[in-house]
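Trying the structure run again after the queue cleared.
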Amino acid sequence: MQNLTELPFNATSQKSLSVIIKVCAVIPFFCTYLSCIVVMLHVFASHSQFLNTSRYILFAHMLINDTLQLLSSVLLFLLVMGQVKFPVFYCVPLLFLSTVTYQNTPLILAAMSLERYVAIFYPLQRPAAWCSGRIWIINLCLWLISCMSHIIEYSIGKQRPAVDVLFTPVLCKNILINSSPIQALFRTAMSVMFFAVVAVVIFSTYVRILLETRKLRQDRVSVNKAKHTVLLHGFQLLLCMLAFTLPITESLTLLYTNWPAEDIAFFNYFCFILIPRFLSPLIYGFRDHSLRGYIGKTFLCCSNTVKPHFRSKQQDSLSAS
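Done. Tokens:
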């Protein structure tokens, strides 16, 4: 009889421990990423040469987009882990931001590859849209494309009659507003189309730049840098496409292991969504020579300002004693 009464308590304690472990794994990871992104954005805002270059403007745009994506997805993760419920009216904007920023990343990668292509083949007669003063037009178009696809996806779904949008508390999950098979089919088709178009753009620009490298004898250093940059965008796209393996990995894990569904979902989220979004901008940012130098100086300045602060506190305590 005692064992039967202890079973619910043991199950609850194991579930609570699992939630604590998951939160402790995600939060430090996200805080480390956020601190690096804040330093990079501070470098961009403090030095005008970055704000006057189209490539760095697009990269800063990708940093902001991925930060919004991780911020919204981590917030949704914490709300689900804590079983926090609130009305659909407040849940939809958060889900919309998470999905739009996720879809926007491959489009930004395509724009960055095309910018390298334009910089190599039209160095003196750049199209007006690719100049640093008007690159915001391209960024705005990318956001419009991502937003329109998801607005159409939400509009073709059927609203649940039993759910009151303003007052019924629900768990904020994506299945709440994407539950119909038509929406799933539309979402899959749009994702495949977006990633296919971006893959074609990155591959074609890489091939063109590779052929140009063999023709040019002068300024081969900048052309080689552009070729490696486009290749890196392809690697970033590959990291983003890891999210498409979620249904396969979930099926295989359920087939060959006894893991609970919640643990499988967390494992896939951490490995195929969180880590690729974490690595992608950091690899690109720390690879750039000039940006890496300014980032190192910023970290050095921060450490130098913290040390005198602690030294002054120690001196005050010694003098007081």
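Strands lie at 85-87, 169-171. Worth checking whether this holds up in the mutant runs.
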